[in-house]
Specification:
single chain, 237 residues, mainly alpha, globular, DUF3169, monooxygenase activity, transmembrane helix, oxidoreductase
């Protein structure tokens, strides 16, 4: 295990060195790229993600409803169990796709508000995507109520989500908690530190410190760690 950690450290150092060299090599190339091109390209990619996630969300939520109807009507035990598992699995897939759709919609709205973007069709597309994202979110909430028999709002509060988690059975609750802990660990120890390196590379390439992005990253990183004190205070009374 010690050797494994040693090689991870060496690999991270080598990767950082090559990223630094790459940023210096690409500095001249990025100086020739216009911000307008970057924004239009980003909008196009995000729009594609939004449309795909919209289709997937509707598809999986509908499949979840169909599987739940089968679970309610079929009496044969094996088919009943299979439909039950499928309903919950499709619901989770649809929920993830709905969340990605919401993210894509917000990104599109942020991009079209840039003074560089002067295309009214992109603005209209963003509004249409916003309408569909809220419609899908409402459909998702109603599907959750149908399958899990728990009523959530589109803009659920942390307290509501915690109460929703407590409605799970013990096995699923344990799986959710393990996944949440691993996600938090990866964010704190891997993803966010990697973003610091990425900001360093971008600052080197663009010859300008990405101050706003750095401040946002620091706030998120600090929040994740300081928020752990609430758990400590609540559990170790």
């Amino acid at each position: 295990m010690k050797h494994k950690h040693k090689w991870i450290g060496i690999g991270a150092g080598v990767l950082g060195f090559f990223l630094g060299m790459l940023s210096l090599a690409l500095r001249g190339l990025f100086n020739q790229i216009q911000i307008e091109q970057v924004l239009y390209t980003s909008f196009g990619l995000i729009a594609i993600v939004g449309v795909i996630s919209l289709a997937l969300a509707v598809y999986y939520l509908r499949k979840g409803r169909e599987a739940y109807v089968i679970y309610q009507t079929v009496e044969e035990e094996e088919a009943n169990e299979k439909a039950y598992v499928s309903a919950y699995r499709f619901l989770d897939y649809g929920t993830v796709a709905s969340n990605i759709l919401m993210i894509a919609m917000l990104c599109c709205l942020v991009i079209v508000t840039s003074p560089v973007i002067e295309n009214v069709y992109l603005f209209i597309f963003s509004l249409v995507l916003m309408f569909f994202s809220f419609a899908v979110a409402n459909y998702c909430v109603r599907t959750i109520f149908l399958i899990r028999q728990y009523k959530l709002s589109i803009f659920s509060t942390p307290k509501e989500v915690l109460s929703f988690l407590n409605s799970y059975d013990e096995g699923e609750k344990q799986a959710e908690m393990e996944n949440a802990y691993l996600t938090l660990f990866r964010l704190n120890q891997i993803i966010l530190p990697a973003l610091y390196i990425l900001l360093f590379v971008l600052s080197t390439i663009l010859q300008e410190t990405q101050l706003v992005a750095l401040l946002i990253l620091i706030v998120i990183h600090l929040y994740i760690n300081i928020d752990q004190l609430r758990k400590t205070k609540r559990y170790f009374k």
